[in-house]
Amino acid sequence: MLRKTMIGLAVLLLAIVVLCGAAIMYVKPTEALNLDYEQVPVAQKALEMIKARKLEVRLSERDLNDILKKQLAARAKIGPNATIEGARFEQRGSRLTAYVNIRTVGGIAVGGAIDFTLEWKSPELIVRPTEPRIRGLSVPDAWLPLEPIVIRADELLPPLVTIKDVRFEDAGITIAFKLE
After folding, report:
1. Sign of the C-alpha dihedral, residues 93, 125, 45, 161?
2. Given a cut of 80, is residue 122 above it in pLDDT?
3. Mean pLDDT over all residues of the chain?
4. What is the rounded CA–CA span in Å between residue 87 and residue 64?
5. What is the rounded distance in angstroms from the CA atom of residue 157 to the CA atom of residue 175?
6. Could you check whether the bond before residue 80 is cis, i.e. omega within 30 degrees of 0?
7. Residue 45: is its pLDDT beyond 80?
8. What is the dihedral sign for C-alpha 51, 54, 56, 60?
9. Band of the pLDDT at 33, cuts 50, 70, 90?
10. Are strands 95-103 and 124-134 parallel, antiparallel or unpaired?
11. Tens of pLDDT, residues 92-108
12. So what's the pLDDT on residue 90?
């Protein structure tokens, strides 16, 4: 009888180890990501604006990616046991998807995606998280406690220049300015 119990416990323990291993392999990131970013070429954007003779500038998806990675790098720790190690962003109008690599408890690497909405409330661009996922499966917001990312656009502008309008396009953002 004791022997059957020991064999049963050993099988149960082995099943738990196999399931844990399978879960770790399932959530493992599928692509190598980092938080490296380049400064957005503001002078070049201003020159393009002057050449076009329009008081508007277009930020490409890559520019937006660099701006958001900079914000994310400054606050990569998203909880007591999780740190974002890499990200890549894809934008479609006012929707944004962040593909992220996160390091969690015990050094376990997790790949996931987080959907965001982009919202312009002058003078702030607000990037609000809506749905975190791991391999297509929704996870509770408490697992990835993300606060909205707020980018103060007025701090990036010279005096006497304000933002008139922001348009979210398929792969970028167009910002219209006005002179005060």
Report:
1. positive
2. yes
3. 85
4. 12
5. 12
6. no
7. no
8. negative
9. very high
10. unpaired
11. 999 999 899 989 888 88
12. 92
Where do the structural domains in the chain lie, given as residue ranges? Answer: 1-28, 31-179
Please give the structure tokens belonging to residue 87.
């990200």
Name residue 64's amino acid. Answer: L
Q: How many residues does the chain have?
A: 180
- Is the Cβ–Cβ distance between 58 and 173 less than 8 Å? yes
Mean pLDDT throughout 111-124?
Answer: 89
In angstroms, the CA 19 to CA 24 distance is 9
Three-state SS annotation for the chain: CHHHHHHHHHHHHHHHHHHHHHHHHHHCCCCCCCCCCCCCCHHHHHHHHHHHCCCEEEEEHHHHHHHHHHHHHHCCEEECCEEEEEEEEEEECCEEEEEEEEECHHHCEEEEEEEEEEEEECCEEEEEEEEEEECCEECCHHHCCCCCEEEEHHHHCCCCEEEEEEEEECCEEEEEEEEC
Residues 166-176 have pLDDT tens digits of: 999 988 888 88
